[in-house]
Amino acid sequence: MSLTVRASGALFSPQFSRTFSAPKLTLLRFSKPSPSRFTPKINMSSSASAQPIVEHVVLFKVKDDTDPSKVNAMVNSLNGLASLNLTLHLTAGPLYRTRSSPIAFTHLLHSRYSTKDDLSTYNVHPNHLSMVKDSVLPICDDVMAVDWVAEDVQGPVAPPPGSAIRVTFLKLKENLGEESKSEILGVIKGIKGKFAEINQISTGENFSPARAKGYSIASLAVLPGVSELEGLDSKQELANVEKDKVKEHLESVIVLDYVVASPQSASL
């Protein structure tokens, strides 16, 4: 795994970034799914109206020197959870890039639900529990999950293949008041209007603290692709203006980039 240290314009990230190249693993090709398996259960059109969405993001740190076939099996199993009727959207695979993180995560799962109850039911579903036991825990050193409700997500519920996703988790300083939290959420919500590259922004407070390692505010930005992600990072001066508005409230930041793969295949 290679490590590159360079200047970064990533929102809420430090002045340097760590880029971890993906492990040299084999190419896994999923069998072509039936139309119902990967089709979201609600309107996916780009003109979909704003609606509340429950976000679920899980980060995985695969053990060094894990057999590639076992990593493939994990990602295959994770993506297989898209067949559950509870999920509006689910994608899983290797991270594209790590901008800032105290833990060297390697993979990400992002899924969406209509309600907290749907997410709770998903978490205790037998297929989910057996997948975690058989495919995830044996090969992962660390797992982290953050859940939040985004009240006004606009656009498609399922980002199309090729979309770039930037996930940001914020750990706040102790004894921070509600007014400061509201200020931070307001700054994040306003980012979309300042950066044309972003198609969709989702943010909220984590409601699953036991699994989040102290990170309490989350955001997820969806961009058309990697080129737009690079364009976002080129606007360092504007990004610094936004970071300066909230950095005094922050203890730690995780910023990760992920690219949505086709459901038919994924490079692990």
UniProtKB/TrEMBL annotation:
Matches recorded under InterPro entries: Dabb (IPR013097), Dimeric_a/b-barrel (IPR011008), HS1/DABB1-like (IPR044662)
Assembly and binders: Homodimer.
Pfam families: Dabb (PF07876)
Origin species: Prunus dulcis (Almond)
Protein name from the UniProt record: PREDICTED: stress-response A/B barrel domain-containing
Residues of the Stress-response A/B barrel domain: 54-148, 164-258
